[in-house]
Amino acid sequence: MNRAALYKISYGLYIVTSGQDGKFNGQIANSMFQVTSNPGSVAISINKENFTHELIKLSRKFVVSILVQSAPMNFIGLFGFKSGRDVNKMQNIKTKTGTTKVPIVLENTVAYIEVELEKELDCGTHTIFVGNIVDGDVIGNEEPMTYAYYQHVKGGKSPKTAPTYVKDEPTAASVQTAPGPRYVCSVCGYVYDPVKGDPDSGIVPGTRFEDIPDSWTCPVCGADKSKFELA
Ligand code: FE
User: What is the pTM assigned to this prediction?
Assistant: First the structure.
């Protein structure tokens, strides 16, 4: 089996939120698609270990907020590489509630879909949740983020709980030649490439890792500079 074939599958990038009674959480998901048009339904694949999985089971509803291409890595990292069991991810995020009363993420998103859970399919490590669309709207006019853009342009990785996770996943950043050495975050796998810098955090392209201020943190997971190793 050539696993590279799987890298040719196209995906988007979404924040799935769920919960009830003041207890809410959100996580990044790339496995989401529309199942039927009439009535409108969508499916998502969520890891059983994730807090959001627990909340979807409990509340039987979820919201899919569609990320824009310009969403910064630290915003994606908050939802993708931190657990809602450890931090309140929703605390400083601009949201609103609609029909389902589940938070709709209004930052770095272009549209949202509110869903009531109808069916679930046990897939081992993951559950596929299928639900009816009860509401939704377009809230911006930016291009939506694709998973390919996240990986190849932003240098993003999959967390271990993603359906598409593979160990030592190749990214464009890991194969391109750079004038200075690349460094990898030992916590989340983000690769700092001096060619690209980290413009979201004010590190201009061409900055060597050694020259980044010590106050800088991993744009994906928030780890200290000391957690980085030579790639
Ligand atoms: Fe990291």
Answer: 0.82
